[in-house]
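Reproducibility note. Readers wishing to regenerate the assembly model reported in the main text can use the exact inputs given here. Chain order matters: entities are listed in the order in which they were concatenated for prediction.
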Amino acid sequence: MDNRPIGVFDSGLGGLTSVRELARLLPGEDLLYFGDTARTPYGSRSRDTIIRYGREDVELLLARGVKAILCACNTVSSTLPADYTAGLPVPFVGVVDASAAAAVRATKNGRIGVIATAATVKSGSYTRALDALDGSLAVTAKACPLFVPVIENGYVGREEPIVTALAREYLAPLKEAGVDTLILGCTHYPLIAEAIADEMGPGVTLIDSGAQGALALRGALEGAGLLRARRSGGEVQFYVSDSGENFAEVGSLFLGKDLAGAVHPFTLAAP
Amino acid sequence: MDNRPIGVFDSGLGGLTSVRELARLLPGEDLLYFGDTARTPYGSRSRDTIIRYGREDVELLLARGVKAILCACNTVSSTLPADYTAGLPVPFVGVVDASAAAAVRATKNGRIGVIATAATVKSGSYTRALDALDGSLAVTAKACPLFVPVIENGYVGREEPIVTALAREYLAPLKEAGVDTLILGCTHYPLIAEAIADEMGPGVTLIDSGAQGALALRGALEGAGLLRARRSGGEVQFYVSDSGENFAEVGSLFLGKDLAGAVHPFTLAAP
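Running the prediction on these inputs yields the following structure tokens for the assembly.
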């Protein structure tokens, strides 16, 4: 039993889809969220820069005394070296492995699709994770670099022309490959799940990486005896590296409630 | 006469439209470009963060011995305090004042439009600069937050559906206002000038802020006696805070030539 907060981080806002799921699964836990809004997005940056930023994010949460870390950013989960995350003093769960496992459970025809940022696709992390679970799978990965800015600007409607035009273009190779399971390998994408499902057609299972990360974190806490005493009403505090206003505004899109009082901006000093 | 290089900076790539124009206007000058590609885009960030980043960019160029600075980023030009830029040890030219002056020269009906990032529009910089030149102008400003990511992902064609759909939406209030002059208040936008011109219709003059910044810088150097001895074949060196590969690739879109050999990545140490 451990009453310290759980740490969750993301390059920006996307990880809030994990927070929503964690708050549902573990309503008594305190959560400490860090969104690196002064340097988001990570998904178009180079590997070295993503590793540097990811390590800074982890160290920031450790310095605030968290008992476990959920990396709710697919880009960072795909890029932080395993020997670094394995050596951390608290359990570390990334959304990539959690989502790969869920996809393997869901697929019937063995054809799995992955949509994600350019950096996640380039890293090959999903293909490696899926291969390790089942070497016979056919995996098709497609970078969708414009989904994040489009979503962050509030274009999320099922029939929004910009969303449907991009979905048609980005999802064509996945439809062609005949996937029956599609990993939303970026925690922003659940906000446009309806448009994605419409384009993919019926019979394709969508895997929400933010929610899968939350489930895997619960499992890790249970396994390590780190859940806190049962109660309800856990608190969520949000730390952001840019101003809190933008975050509170767009964050409400993700969480469906007002965040204003719980957002703490501070300046991130890079090493 | 001064043979030191000219410094040009931008949050990322957009300033290359200024570099192209400077190289045409002053072919003998050496240029030193800094693009903060590890933290781009600035246009959606808060005022405090933009000021912090902009000052770091300026200090980086000063430390490398430039004789003048062109701030080729409308967002930073709109946000850095005038008492800071006026106190710098070398001439500093921002694209906002240069573009406002060009728009005032161009307009016939006194109705001027501005399209720019969210931060530039929110700052009110163009409206203030235009007002100071002519208090009788009617200014309509519209933030176009998705143009930058769309352009950086290579969607620049005149009939590209994503570009034309966004142009229709973003430009509607400017057409309604009857502007005869439209400031492209972000140095990315010249890459989609054709689609913007098509949507605005004939009789609307587009003002390229990157090119206007270059013209104003030439004027400032002439005025201060800082041009170098006449020659051709000035060198351009590019410094970027993220990996050089992405920059060289997308940068070729802006400059129309291969940059690979002249790009130097380095780690930006924030204070």
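We highlight two features of this model. The interface with chain B takes residues 37-39, 44-49, 52, 145-146, 149-150, 152-153, 161-162, 165-166, 241-243, 245-246, 265, 267-271 of chain A (CB under 8 Å). Chain A has a mean pLDDT of 94.
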